[in-house]
């Protein structure tokens, strides 16, 4: 006759009650990985999970099993995650995204090996400071919840490389986050941030991706220039009025999104970003595109919905440009067919303008060329020189 295991282990289930869930748990005991996503779990996690998959049956050969290292509970209807979570001391990956959780247990700090934590798409209003005790954390996703702040204790997670908290109600960032000196990806899109602290960028020198779009930012800190490894920066749909000249320090920047802000111009120093390929400046208040920025080697440039009346001829020297968007500008120096036509045609036209101006400056402009330039500037005729 089977004997129940001692030392607080749960009793075995009734005879003949072997279910699919039990088979899943048994398999997880062998692999150390349990995936219960899309299982229509409601309210709570099965008790066996908190007991490191102990079903109470001697048939499980529990002495041959391994501790749970990966737990996926995504896409269920869970409302509570118990403090018993601390029993899973070997847990490395925890994914409880897409549930109905309103809180995270303080026991999260008792998981010394936890590297990946995903609690996105819940109804969580507060992350306990104990999360900072899980110092092995590398990836954290708090996105799509109801958070108003991030725990300052995250600054103790010195190995943290990815932090996502998009689509919350966060209005400020704790200064302690500067301690996450290995951070490479930071995503706070869709919050209520009014400021990006200066000290963070001087510490986050390994940052490659920064997304703070759809916030209420008015400035970009000068310390942005410390991010020499930054490849992608998205700050669209804020209230930013200027870009600091220190942007030239972002020498690895390849994509820069600044659409839907309040820019009236951009600094000439941006022309020093030799790797920049995409520059999105749509829906700002720009009245001119600076000559210094014509040194860029862009493939995509969006200047639509600004206040531009013309373009510098020097832009025609940007031979890498494949797409230039200009709609929604009061262009008076360019015919509408050039504005809406192929980018290559417009670029050729700008180069012809540049050549004309250079010859005029040297006093070598022939009468016919002068007439051509006059007609071009008045937007009556475009004579293509052979």
Automatic annotation (TrEMBL):
Q: Which residues cross the membrane?
A: none
Q: Which UniProt keywords apply?
A: Leucine-rich repeat, Repeat
**PROSITE patterns per UniProt:** LRR
A single GO cellular-component term from the record reads: cytoplasm
Q: Which InterPro entries match?
A: Leu-rich_rpt (IPR001611), Leu-rich_rpt_typical-subtyp (IPR003591), LRR_dom_sf (IPR032675), LRR_domain-containing (IPR050216)
- Give the residue ranges for region: Disordered: 1-23
Function text = Leucine-rich repeat protein that likely mediates protein interactions, possibly in the context of signal transduction.
> What family does the database annotate?
Belongs to the SHOC2 family.
Please identify the protein, giving its name as recorded. Leucine-rich repeat-containing N-terminal plant-type domain-containing protein
Q: Which organism is it from?
A: Aegilops tauschii subsp. strangulata
């Amino acid at each position: 006759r089977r004997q129940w295991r001692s030392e607080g282990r749960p009793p075995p289930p009734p005879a003949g009650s072997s279910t699919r869930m039990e088979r899943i748990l048994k398999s997880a005991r062998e692999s150390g990985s349990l995936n219960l996503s899309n299982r229509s779990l409601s309210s709570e996690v099965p008790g066996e999970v908190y007991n490191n998959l102990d079903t109470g049956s001697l048939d499980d050969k529990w002495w041959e099993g391994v501790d749970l290292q990966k737990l996926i509970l995504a896409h269920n209807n869970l409302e509570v995650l118990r403090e018993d979570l601390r029993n899973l001391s070997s847990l490395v990956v925890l994914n409880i995204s897409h549930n109905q959780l309103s809180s995270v247990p303080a026991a999260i700090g008792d998981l010394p090996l936890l590297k990946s934590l995903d609690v996105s798409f819940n109804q969580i209003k507060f992350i306990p400071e104990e999360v900072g005790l899980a110092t092995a954390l590398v990836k954290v996703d708090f996105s799509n919840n109801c958070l108003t702040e991030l725990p300052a204790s995250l600054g103790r997670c010195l190995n943290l490389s990815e932090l996502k908290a998009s689509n919350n109600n966060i209005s400020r960032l704790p200064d302690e986050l500067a301690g996450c000196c290995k951070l490479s990806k930071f995503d706070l899109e869709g919050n209520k941030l009014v400021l990006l602290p200066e000290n963070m960028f001087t510490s986050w020198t390994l940052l490659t991706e920064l997304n703070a779009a759809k916030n209420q930012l008015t400035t970009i800190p000068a310390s942005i220039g410390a991010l020499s490894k930054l490849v992608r920066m998205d700050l669209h749909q804020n209230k930013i009025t200027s870009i600091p000249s220190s942007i030239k320090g972002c020498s690895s920047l390849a994509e820069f999104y600044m659409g839907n802000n309040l820019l009236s111009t951009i600094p000439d120093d941006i022309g020093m970003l030799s790797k920049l390929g995409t520059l999105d400046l749509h829906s700002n208040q720009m009245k001119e595109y600076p000559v210094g920025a014509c040194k860029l080697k862009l493939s995509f440039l969006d200047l639509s919905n600004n206040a531009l009346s013309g373009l510098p001829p020097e832009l025609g020297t940007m031979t890498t440009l494949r797409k230039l968007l200009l709609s929604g500008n009061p262009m008076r120096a360019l015919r509408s067919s050039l504005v809406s036509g192929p980018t290559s045609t417009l670029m050729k036209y700008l180069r012809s303008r540049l050549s004309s101006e250079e010859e005029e400056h040297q006093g070598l402009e022939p009468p016919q060329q002068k007439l051509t330039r006059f007609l071009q500037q008045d937007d009556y005729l475009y004579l293509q020189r052979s």
